[in-house]
Amino acid sequence: DTEVTQTPKHLVMGMTNKKSLKCEQHMGHRAMYWYKQKAKKPPELMFVYSYEKLSINESVPSRFSPECPNSSLLNLHLHALQPEDSALYLCASSQAGKRYFGPGTRLTVL
Amino acid sequence: GIQVEQSPPDLILQEGANSTLRCNFSDSVNNLQWFHQNPWGQLINLFYIPSGTKQNGRLSATTVATERYSLLYISSSQTTDSGVYFCAVAINNYGQNFVFGPGTRLSVLP
Predict the structure, then answer these.
(1) What is the DSSP letter of B94?
(2) Smallest Cβ distance to A98: which of B33, B41, B103?
(3) B43 touches chain A (CB under 8 A)
């Protein structure tokens, strides 16, 4: 099973809302990632979790709050987002360097 | 940091044609992967190929690490090959510095 799942597929939220994105993998990978991708651009790294500890935060605004409850789950909590945060949010996991991506959550902030 | 270039930026093919996509990188790497992003946003891992040659059906890839480039060959293209092809590289296998190229946007016409 080489699958990373993400929910929801689509999300529309207002600037005052609080929502969460969820990512799950059952491949036993100990590194998990959040990426943000704007249209016609490559993915940009936001956060890296290694063995359930946050190891990289690429200067992401505090309105994005990651959480890794266990080795299979990764959440991204969203609060007070701006319209420019609208993007495709991708989760990934990796083992021995090979990275696997989920299908993404397409987020629209109104 | 590592710089990654991809060429061509855009490519339009007739179904059945062959194509070669190129990825150049500025420094020695121990991790190189090719991804296909389909029109729905899913990033699919095509090859993990830090060096050498691999084949998978109609796709094959070659990385010449000493000359800092990788090639992705698509033979007998199909409309389902349309999408964006990304090359991504890293100095090591441990999450950091996994840099994406800008991508090659491929359109295969019926």
Answers:
(1) S
(2) B33
(3) yes
